[in-house]
């Protein structure tokens, strides 16, 4: 099936699930993101499940940023307000530029589904070493919202007036 936006530029994507409980056999959000990324014509070049530990998360994301093969990092989980959630604290220091509109837009759209509970969402995004990083809640419905209503179009060079494709590092395919 063709991608509805006609994306002809495939990107290399890392999918990172932050969870102290998920496994490769039990990661519906990671499964969804991998399928959605591939349906859009991109390549999942790394898929990892990581415990919710800010230093482990930071190390994995730092490796992705430094990699010449990864252009996009999608992180699901660890963005809530619970004391164990540490994704924003792990990744925000790595950003060269924050994409503040992502969190704002995610919470606005999320409000339609979960009302005031969206206050506890700490979805964030940024650009680091020409790698775009999106972090959002780990529920599968949140992954659908983030991918389908925001991220997918921003990874398509045909999206006007702007998208992130031209700002990403070039990789040899």
TrEMBL record:
Alphabetized InterPro entries for the sequence: MoaB (IPR012245), MoaB/Mog-like_dom_sf (IPR036425), MoaB/Mog_dom (IPR001453), MoaB_proteobac (IPR013484)
GO biological process assignments: Mo-molybdopterin cofactor biosynthetic process
Domain MoaB/Mog: 14-158
Keyword annotations: Molybdenum cofactor biosynthesis
Domain of life: Bacteria
One GO CC annotation: cytosol
Pathway connected to this protein: Cofactor biosynthesis; molybdopterin biosynthesis
SMART domains: MoCF_biosynth (SM00852)
Gene3D superfamilies linked to this entry: MoaB/Mog-like domain
Keyword Phosphoprotein: no
Pfam family name, one: MoCF_biosynth
Database matches in NCBIfam families: moaB_proteo, molyb_syn
Family indicated by similarity: Belongs to the MoaB/Mog family.
Physiological role: May be involved in the biosynthesis of molybdopterin.
Record protein name field: Molybdenum cofactor biosynthesis protein B
Naturally occurring in which organism (per UniProt): Rosenbergiella nectarea
Taxonomic lineage: Bacteria, Pseudomonadati, Pseudomonadota, Gammaproteobacteria, Enterobacterales
